[in-house]
Amino acid sequence: MFIIEVVPPSVRDPVVMVAGRKFEASKLKEGVWKIDLSPANLKPGAIKAEIRIDGEVQEFEIKIKGGMEEEELI
Questions:
Q1: 47: buried, middle or exposed (CB in 10 Å: 19+, 13-18, 0-12)?
Q2: Rounded distance, CA 63 to CA 37, Å?
Q3: Residue 35: Cβ within 10 Å count
Q4: Residue 17 pLDDT
Q5: In what order do the strands lie in the sheet containing 32-35?
Q6: CATH number for the segment(s) 2-64
Q7: Among 32, 33, 45, 70, who pairs with 25 as Cys (CB 3.0-4.6 Å)?
Q8: What's the predicted TM-score (pTM) here?
Q9: What is the CA radius of gyration of the chain?
Q10: pLDDT in tens, the chain (74 residues)
Q11: What's phi and psi for 20, nearest 5 deg?
């Protein structure tokens, strides 16, 4: 999950494209949005992404450091 702030605030919801998949943003408050990337099951490393809002496209890079592994405790 990550949080973005859109200045000036937009009327439309931002759309985030990561690894060829589309993710909708959830509004937290005016101009602030949350995007949940957990369904993407991303691997560690740098991943190119873009935010689309009000006809504009902004490219950026997401750096995934690592995930959690489950251990069986006996």
A1: middle
A2: 12
A3: 18
A4: 92
A5: 2-5, 32-35, 26-29
A6: 2.60.40.1590
A7: 33
A8: 0.69
A9: 14
A10: 888 888 888 878 899 998 889 998 899 999 899 999 888 888 888 989 999 988 899 999 988 887 555 556 65
A11: 75, 5
Q: How many CA atoms lie within 13 A of 13 on its CB side?
A: 11
Token duo for residue 36:
């949940």
Residue with tokens 């949080």: 3
Q: Which two tokens stand for residue 26?
A: 């959830």
Start-to-end CA span in the chain (Å):
31
Tokens (6 digits) for 55 = 């006809």
Q: CA 71 to CA 48: how far, in whole Å?
A: 31
C-alpha–C-alpha distance, residues 52 and 67, integer Å:
27
The structure tokens listed for 50 are 């873009």
